[in-house]
Structure formats: C-alpha cells, structure tokens
C-alpha cells in the first residue's frame, strides 16, 4: 500500500523554511525578520508568517522585542551551558530506562540508523544532514524506555541546541569524534552496560557543549 502524502499548512511550510535558513546560518544572529518581506519571499499573507515566527520563538530560534519586532536569537555561551547540562541529565535518565527494556530488534533499528549516519559522514553534505541523523540515532536508543513526555522534552532541547551544533561542525572536526563515540555507545548498549553507557553519554554531551562554548567565545573575542 502506498503511503498517503503528508499535507502541510502554509504556516508549517514557512516555519520549516525560516528554521532551515537560521540553522544553516543564512539568517544571521540578531538579524531582523520583517514580516512583510518574509510574506513576499514565501508568497503568503502575513498571518502564516506571524504564526511561524511564534512557533520559532517557542523553539528558541526567534526573539520578539518591543519596538523591534522579531529577530534571530542571539547566540549565548550561558545558554549553551544550560541547554547541554539539561540534555545530559534528561538523556542519561532515559537511556538507563531504555537499556533495561532494550531488545535485539531495538538494537537493530539503532544499528541501521548508525549505518546511515556513517554514510552521511562519508558524503559531501555532512553538516546539512548530520544533525538529523544524530538525533535519530539517539532517539532509536531511547525509544525502548517508552517515555513519550520525556522524548518531547529531549526533542525541544535538541532543537534549541541544533544551531550551536551546526556551528561547531562547520569550524571543527566534531563529526569524526561523535562517530567514534556513537559506535562505543552502541556497543555498551549491546552489552547492557548501563553505567558505562550513561558515563559516556554524559561525557559526549557535556564535552560537545564545552567545545561549542569555547568556539563561540573565541569568535566573539575575534569580532571585537
């Protein structure tokens, strides 16, 4: 049976387009987001543009300021610390529950995602696709926990971290390090090594946050 096509509203299409432009760095930090100009660019009225910007504000990508309107959210070292520390706490908790419930079928699904991830690493479009596969790999490992509310929190945190992660990948060799850590994490899950997997995951997340924070501070100091 063929899959039914997924229809998206104008608001969803505009939201996805603006999010992609922010994550790819085409819309810069602090850049004004003029609703009239965006409506013209996407050939829609201002209503779906306004709704899309509100959704992006909830994702931490857009800020609304009095007398200024919507702008691309500023990159913040303090926000990096908070987001990645929260990720470490929540994701280590769900991974522990997941390993306790993990079946061979669950591991096979995670292995398939990781193999696709390896193919992305060897492609010429690493940064564009890597972030999506990275989240999918972690999601496959966490799925056996059967904690949908916690997964919603993790999705929100990962969405807010995505800009920072993409910035790191553009300027460092972070993909290669993450690839090796993903392999080790997968093997620990295979062996049901709960404590080892939690330790590695916490280290994996916090070290990424520290590297991104240092990179951002370096860029901010250079631009002064």
Automatic annotation (TrEMBL):
<keyword id="KW-0238">DNA-binding</keyword>
<dbReference type="InterPro" id="IPR036390">
    <property type="entry name" value="WH_DNA-bd_sf"/>
</dbReference>
<feature type="domain" description="HTH gntR-type">
    <location>
        <begin position="8"/>
        <end position="75"/>
    </location>
</feature>
<dbReference type="GO" id="GO:0003700">
    <property type="term" value="F:DNA-binding transcription factor activity"/>
</dbReference>
<dbReference type="Pfam" id="PF07729">
    <property type="entry name" value="FCD"/>
</dbReference>
<dbReference type="InterPro" id="IPR036388">
    <property type="entry name" value="WH-like_DNA-bd_sf"/>
</dbReference>
<dbReference type="GO" id="GO:0003677">
    <property type="term" value="F:DNA binding"/>
</dbReference>
<protein>
    <submittedName>
        <fullName>Bacterial regulatory s, gntR family protein</fullName>
    </submittedName>
</protein>
<keyword id="KW-0805">Transcription regulation</keyword>
<dbReference type="InterPro" id="IPR000524">
    <property type="entry name" value="Tscrpt_reg_HTH_GntR"/>
</dbReference>
<dbReference type="InterPro" id="IPR011711">
    <property type="entry name" value="GntR_C"/>
</dbReference>
<dbReference type="Pfam" id="PF00392">
    <property type="entry name" value="GntR"/>
</dbReference>
<keyword id="KW-0804">Transcription</keyword>
<dbReference type="InterPro" id="IPR008920">
    <property type="entry name" value="TF_FadR/GntR_C"/>
</dbReference>
């Amino acid at each position: 049976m063929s899959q039914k096509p997924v229809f998206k509203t104008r608001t969803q299409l505009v939201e996805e387009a603006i999010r992609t432009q922010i994550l790819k760095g085409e819309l810069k930090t602090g850049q004004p987001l003029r609703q009239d100009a965006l409506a013209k660019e996407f050939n829609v009225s201002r209503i779906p543009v306004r709704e899309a910007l509100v959704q992006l504000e909830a994702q931490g990508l857009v800020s609304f300021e009095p007398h200024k309107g919507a702008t691309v959210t500023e990159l913040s070292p303090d926000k990096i610390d908070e987001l990645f520390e929260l990720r470490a706490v929540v994701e280590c908790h769900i991974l522990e529950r997941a390993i306790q419930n993990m079946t061979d079928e669950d591991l096979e699904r995670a292995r398939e995602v990781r193999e696709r991830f390896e193919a992305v690493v060897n492609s010429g479009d690493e940064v564009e696709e890597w972030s999506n596969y990275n989240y999918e790999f972690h999601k496959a490992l966490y799925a056996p926990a059967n904690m949908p509310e916690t997964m919603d929190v993790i999705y929100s945190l990962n969405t807010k971290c995505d800009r920072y992660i993409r910035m790191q990948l553009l300027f460092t060799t972070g993909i290669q390090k993450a690839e090796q850590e993903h392999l080790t994490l997968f093997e620990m899950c295979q062996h049901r090594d709960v404590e080892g997997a939690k330790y590695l995951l916490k280290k994996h997340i916090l070290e990424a946050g520290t590297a991104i924070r240092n990179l951002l501070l370096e860029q901010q100091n250079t631009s002064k």
